[in-house]
Amino acid sequence: MESEEKRKPNAREIAARVRGEIAAGTFGPGDRLPGGRAYAKKLGVSLMTVQNAYTQLREEGLLEGVSGSGTYVRDTAPGEQGPREAAQRMTDLQADVARLSTELRDEVAGLKFELAGLRERLSVLEGDQGSI
Questions:
Q1: 3-state secondary structure string, the chain?
Q2: How many Cβ atoms sit within 10 Å of the Cβ of residue 74?
Q3: Residue 6 to residues 43, 45, 76, Cα–Cα distance (Å)
Q4: Model confidence, pTM
Q5: What values do phi and psi take at 68, rounded to 5?
Q6: Contact assessment for residue 19 and residue 90, using Cβ atoms and an 8 Å cutoff
Q7: Rounded to an integer, what distance in angstroms lies between the CA atom of residue 66 and that of residue 73?
Q8: Which of 84, 93, 105, 129 has the greatest count of CB atoms below 10 A from its CB?
Q9: Are 57 and 15 in contact (CB under 8 A)?
């Protein structure tokens, strides 16, 4: 029996997980997130990794830190987009970027194939002109 060590999530992946939980309504405005140390221990990562994830989400406007109290899902002002909607929008944007990236990669591959064919035809034409 082979023992495989489970890969530990990085800060970006942890932020995506928390963002998904906000989008799903697991955490709502004013809810306190798990403390950094406890969450790091649960995930098997360093405290710095969780802090970096929380920082990323604060920069996105989803979280706010309250000194000496913890990290909370940000409450919004009236008329402002809520954290759940913002998290869902960010998740949707990431999916769009991934889809567009795949489409672009496929398009570039097709163009490279067409360019190779054009070069081959040009080579043949240049060869035909040399024999005239």
A1: CCCCCCCCCCHHHHHHHHHHHHHHCCCCCCCECCCHHHHHHHHCCCHHHHHHHHHHHHHCCCEEEECCCEEEECCCCCCCCCHHHHHHHHHHHHHHHHHHHHHHHHHHHHHHHHHHHHHHHHHHHHHHHHCC
A2: 20
A3: 10, 11, 37
A4: 0.61
A5: 80, 0
A6: yes
A7: 11
A8: 84
A9: yes
